Every structure is written in structure tokens, then in C-alpha cells.
Amino acid sequence: MKYLIIFLSFIFLSVAAPAQEKDIKTDTLMVSGNCSMCKKRIEKAAYVKGVKLAEWNKETKMLTVTYKPSKTSAEEILKSVAAAGHDSETATAPEEAYSKLPACCNYRTGSCDH
Predict the structure, then answer these.
(1) Interval 67-76: pLDDT, tens
(2) Is residue 94 domain-resident?
(3) Residue 25 host element (H or E)
(4) Structural domain for 47, as ranges
């Protein structure tokens, strides 16, 4: 009986695990920025509810996000990043948020010196 319970538990867990992975999506999205300070800000802003991983590449200007589509969307993530002051492919940062960025993070003018 003990072995039957262990066997059934193993079968149930092996069937349930792939079902959970289907609700995970990874997208690569363009987000404007200049430096490591931008990287921290962008990644922090991208962590909305449902985001499991957010990583921005300074050289390619690409944000890779892994998230649950049932809890958020790429559009919602980019809106949050825009609210932090960074333009993306579908959302433009409000002028008020952009003007609060440090001088080295003014990606629209290209004035970063590091």
C-alpha cells in the first residue's frame, strides 16, 4: 500500500508540473536606456505582479522578461517601465518621468558619458 501511494504521488507530480510551465512566457522587448543605473531602474520597474525574471542588456537595449500571461502582459510591463522614465517599442515615458532621470540616463539626447 505504501508503494502504491508513493507511485501515485510520483505520477500526479509528473503530470501536474508541465501544466504549470504552460502558463509561463518569455518575451524580448526594446527599452531605451544608457547605463547601469538605467539597467537597475528598468529591471525594477519590469517586476510587476506575475513577472518571474527581468533582465535588460545595455548593449542591445533589449529587456528579456519571463512572466505569467494569466497575471500580466508585455504591454503592462512596458507601461510600468515607461512610468519609470524609459521609452519602449509600445510605450513612451511621460515627460515628467523622463525629466526626473539623472543626466547620464538621458537616452533621448545621447549625453551619457559612461
Answers:
(1) 999 999 999 9
(2) yes
(3) strand 25-30
(4) 23-105
